[in-house]
Structures are given as structure tokens and as C-alpha cells.
Amino acid sequence: MGEAVALALVPHLAPHSPMRPSCFWSGVRDERAEPIELPASVVRPSHRSGLVRHVLPEHRAALEAYAERVQRHGTRMLVTVLALTAASVAAPLALPEPLGVRALAGILVLLGLAIARDPFCTPETLEWFGVRSSLRVARIAAWVTGLIGLVLLALA
Fold first, then answer.
1. Structure confidence at residue 18 as a pLDDT band (50, 70, 90)
2. How far is the C-alpha of 50 from the C-alpha of 104, rounded, in Å?
3. What would the pLDDT profile of 45-87 be if each residue is shown by its tens digit?
4. Alpha-carbon distance 104 to 141, whole Å?
5. Which run of H or of E encompasses 52?
6. Count of Cβ atoms closer than 10 Å to residue 5 Cβ
7. Model confidence at 12: pLDDT above 90
8. Distance between CA atoms of 54 and 148, rounded to whole angstroms?
9. Which of 14, 27, 61, 79 is deepest in the core (most CB within 10 A)?
10. In the chain, which ranges are continuous DSSP H helix?
């Protein structure tokens, strides 16, 4: 009796209704989504082996190109973001007032440009929104960061 009530309240848990896979690129749920094994560095860097996700046939090439780009440029991007973040904290503390603000502004512009060039996201963001939407969110955040840097530079 309790199991029937639970299945009535949460129908997607019913064993006879398989859940449609979600396309990792677009986030769209569709029966046509095919499994694809992606390198762990793309999906979840803490895992040692590749992980299987699903992708619609029309998005397979774009997802494979993204995975290759992450593998090629991911480490450089991480080091760049960490270095610029450390510099954004150190520059205003180490330099006198007008130079510190200008240095921070320049660092924000560089950070925005770096993220716009390689808009890599966290694994959680990729899972929630899909790769395509996550790239858009990252690029918007990058341009906002760069604009804040330019405004600071103009005001300093």
C-alpha cells in the first residue's frame, strides 16, 4: 500500500516509466539522446576514468569539440584564473592607492578576457544547465567582469 501511494505521488519513480536521458550539450530530454563517454577532465576532474553522458546526434560534434578544448586548455585556464585572482587581492594591498585601484581594474579586464576566451564551467553548472547554456552564462559573467574593470579604470 505504501509503495503504491509513493509511486502515485512521484510518478517518475515508477519502474515502468523510464526517464528520458538529458542531452549533456543542450539539457533537452529526448529519447534520441545517445550515450557518449567523455574524459573525466571534462565532466568531473576528481574521477580517474571517463564518464558516460548522453547527447543528441545533432550536438555530438559540438560536444566532442568542447571536450577536446577543455582537455587542451583546461589546466592553463585554471592556472590563469588562480593567478589573476591572487593578483587581484595582492595588487590593491601592495600598491599605493591610485596604482592599486588601476592594477585591480586591469586585472579584472584580463580576467574577463581570459574567461571569455575559454568559458569553462564547474561540473555542477554543466549538469544543471547543459554545456551550451553554461557557456553562455560564463561568457556573460566574463563580459560583466571586464566591463566592471573598464569602469573602475575610467574612474581611477
1. low
2. 39
3. 666 556 888 999 999 999 999 999 998 998 899 999 999 999 9
4. 17
5. strand 51-55
6. 9
7. no
8. 37
9. 27
10. 2-9, 40-43, 60-94, 97-117, 123-129, 131-155
Question: Are the C-beta atoms of 117 and 69 separated by less than 8 Å?
Answer: no
The CA-CA-CA angle for residues 56, 16, 21, to 5°, reads 15
Yes or no: say if 9 and 20 are a contact pair by the CB < 8 Å rule: no
Place of cell 560536444: 63
**Helices within 118-130 (DSSP H only):** 123-129
Q: Please compute the mean of the pLDDT values over residues 7-31 and round it to a whole number.
A: 66
Residues 54 and 30: beta-carbon distance below 8 Å:
no
Residues 54 and 77 sit within 8 Å (Cβ to Cβ): no
**Residue 6 identity (one-letter amino acid):** A
What are the cell numbers at 105?
581594474
- What lies within 8 Å, CB to CB, of 71 at 6+ separation is 39, 41, 42
Rounded-to-integer distance, Cα 63 and Cα 39, Å: 12
Give which of 133, 123, 122, 125 is closest to 25, Cα–Cα: 133
